[in-house]
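I hope you will forgive my troubling you with a question about protein structure. The record follows directly beneath this note:
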Amino acid sequence: MTDIASMVAGLGGMAQKQQLVARGARDPDLTQAVRRGEVTRARQGWYTTLPPDDPRVQAVRVGGRLTGISAVIAAGGWALGPFALHVSVPSNAARLRTPLNRFVKLAARHVPGLELHWDDDGVAGRGTAMAVDLRDALVRVVLDESFETAVAALDWALHTGRLDRIAFELLILRLPEDRRGIREWVDGRCESLPESLARTRLRILGHTVDIQVRLGDVERIDLVVDDCVGMETDGREFHLETFERDRRKDLDITIARLHPLRPSARMVFHDWTRVVRAVDAALAARRPARRIGNSGASATHPVTTPGKPGVRGRRHRLTPEFPSHGGNTGGRRRLSSG
């Protein structure tokens, strides 16, 4: 008996009927595999071993493929949602269906929770059966999502090697002029989503942020803010096995004459105002002679002026959704822990 489920799994969990027939599947084999629950029909002529609520299945059910932030998340990218389901469909697509039911026609192009993108043949010719090429998805993210979301997605792509520097530079050239400034905000040395979000948000507030700063011979500090605050963005919910090491690192940060802060990922995600207040309070304590603003307001302590690395000046909040330039993010220096 033909093992349809193994065939589909071998094709990535989603396969067209033609692919299976070419591998020896017959109509009765397909029918029996569906009846036994070994595979399901995502859409007429499409078979899958993935769960029905998987976004990749929903995209195929609509009649397209994942794109934008949905494709990035499916690939393991960093993102703080929730987000709508972004689906790329060919410019001549027809017989579209709703994401949850392959029998219900998609009567309107604007459906809550669904974003359709009618892409040209170039996009349609790249990628897999369930998602567009990652480079096309990332371009979509920069065009559609918030600035910090786009920076985080590109940070992830560079950090994990999904994009090399050449591919990244070519991607930037595909963007409209008013989006290309994001290049100066992306850093492949970034190691996590909370680190990326904290870095971008602090820079937008006008702070100078160095990343992955060496502390002694082994350790590195996630973020150093205005040469005063050593911030560790801890994404581990349970980390008893590293408790002593983390506490020792906080002591070393203090010995290096920085103020240690260790907000959790949850704090960065959902209690950011409190984190900003803590940063401002730490800066005020370390620089008592200077007046510090409150929770993102303009402050007067000297930092690198955005767009002018190495120039010291007042802190300026960067308000555009897509700032064209950013402050220094060198992170190359090394601190002594005693």
The longest strand covers residues 209-215.
